[in-house]
C-alpha cells in the first residue's frame, strides 16, 4: 500500500492501477509425502483462489508480485519467478463478479466497474518450506491455507489451469529449480527426497538408481541415522551443501539428463 492509502481502501483510486493487468501467485509447499498449494478463500463465499492482485502505474512487475503476496498472505518470499502469461478471452468466466463483490461498500462502484474489464494475468511461482511461514488472510479473505495439490477445490476463473501450468513448469525445469533445498526440511531421508521427485514428476522412480544418481552429484552431506525402529534399519539423514547445490543448479543438476 502507498503511505497515504489506508489498508483496505484500494478501491478508491482505480486510476492508480494498470488497466487490464493482474498477477496470480502459485506458492508450492511439501509435507507428509505430498505437495500443497497456498490458497485464499473469499469472505462470505465458497470461492477459493490463488493469491493475486493488480500492478500500480509506478511499480515494477516483480516488485508488485512480492507486494501482492505479502499483502494478501502475510508471507515475504526470497524469490518469485514469472512462469507464464494467461490471456484467454474467457478466462474469468466461471465466477460471477457480483457474487464476489456483494459486500463491497457503495463508494467502491468506480472500482467495481474497473474490475469488469478484461484482465491478462502473469503467473508467479515460488517453492517454500511451508513450516517456515505462517499464512495470514487479508481483509478480503476468510482464510489463507494450504490445500493438497491432489485434491484442490474448484478455484475461481482459470486458477486451476494456472496451477497446472505452474506444475508443468516445475517438471520441465526441475534440473534448474531449487526443489529440494526449498521444499525439504534441513535434514531429510533419501526416501523423502525421492518421494518429492515422484510427486513432482508424477511417476515412480527406482530407489537404488535415484540414490546412486543423487549421491554421485556430490551436493548431499550424510548425517546421523534417523532413530526409528532398529538401529540397523534406521535410514541416514542428509542435508544439502548449499554452495555445491547452487553451483550445480546454474548448469542443471542433471538428474533427468
Q: How would you describe this structure to a colleague?
A:
- This protein is α+β, with helices and mostly antiparallel strands.
- It has helices at residues 61-73, 97-100, 109-115, 159-172, 179-183, 190-201, 207-217, 242-251; strands at 17-31, 34-42, 48-49, 52-56, 81-86, 120-127, 141-148, 188-189, 220-225, 236-240.
- The radius of gyration is 21 Å and the shape is elongated.
Please specify the SSE layout and strand pairing.
Layout: E1 17-31, E2 34-42, E3 48-49, E4 52-56, H1 61-73, E5 81-86, H2 97-100, H3 109-115, E6 120-127, E7 141-148, H4 159-172, H5 179-183, E8 188-189, H6 190-201, H7 207-217, E9 220-225, E10 236-240, H8 242-251
Parallel strand pairs: 1-6
Antiparallel strand pairs: 1-2, 1-4, 2-3, 2-7, 5-6, 8-10, 9-10
Which features characterize this protein?
single chain; 3-stranded antiparallel beta sheet; 257 residues; disordered N terminus; 7-stranded mixed beta sheet; alpha+beta
Amino acid at each position: 500500500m502507498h503511505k497515504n492509502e489506508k489498508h483496505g481502501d484500494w478501491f478508491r483510486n482505480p486510476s492508480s492501477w494498470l488497466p487490464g493487468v493482474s498477477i496470480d501467485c502459485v506458492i508450492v509447499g511439501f509435507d507428509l509425502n505430498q505437495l500443497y498449494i497456498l490458497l485464499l478463500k473469499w469472505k462470505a463465499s465458497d470461492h477459493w483462489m490463488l493469491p493475486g492482485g493488480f500492478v500500480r502505474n509506478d511499480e515494477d512487475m516483480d516488485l508488485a508480485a512480492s507486494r501482492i503476496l505479502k499483502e494478501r498472505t502475510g508471507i515475504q518470499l526470497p524469490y518469485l519467478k514469472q512462469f507464464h502469461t494467461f490471456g484467454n478471452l474467457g478466462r474469468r468466466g466461471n465466477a460471477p463478479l457480483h457474487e464476489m463483490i456483494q459486500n463491497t461498500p457503495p463508494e467502491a462502484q468506480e472500482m467495481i466497474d474497473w474490475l469488469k474489464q478484461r484482465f491478462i494475468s502473469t503467473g508467479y511461482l515460488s517453492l517454500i518450506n511451508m513450516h517456515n511461514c505462517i499464512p495470514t488472510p487479508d481483509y478480503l479473505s476468510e482464510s489463507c491455507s494450504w490445500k493438497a495439490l491432489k485434491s484442490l477445490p474448484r478455484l475461481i476463473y482459470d486458477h486451476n489451469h494456472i496451477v497446472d501450468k505452474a506444475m508443468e513448469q516445475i517438471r520441465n525445469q526441475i534440473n534448474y529449480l531449487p526443489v529440494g533445498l526449498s521444499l525439504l526440511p534441513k535434514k531429510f531421508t533419501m526416501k523423502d527426497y525421492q518421494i518429492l521427485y515422484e510427486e513432482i514428476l508424477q511417476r515412480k522412480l527406482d530407489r537404488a538408481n535415484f540414490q546412486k544418481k543423487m549421491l554421485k552429484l556430490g551436493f548431499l552431506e550424510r548425517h546421523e541415522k534417523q532413530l526409528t525402529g532398529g538401529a540397523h534399519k534406521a535410514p541416514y539423514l542428509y542435508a544439502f551443501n548449499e554452495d555445491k547445490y547452487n553451483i550445480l543448479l546454474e548448469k542443471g543438476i542433471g538428474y533427468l539428463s
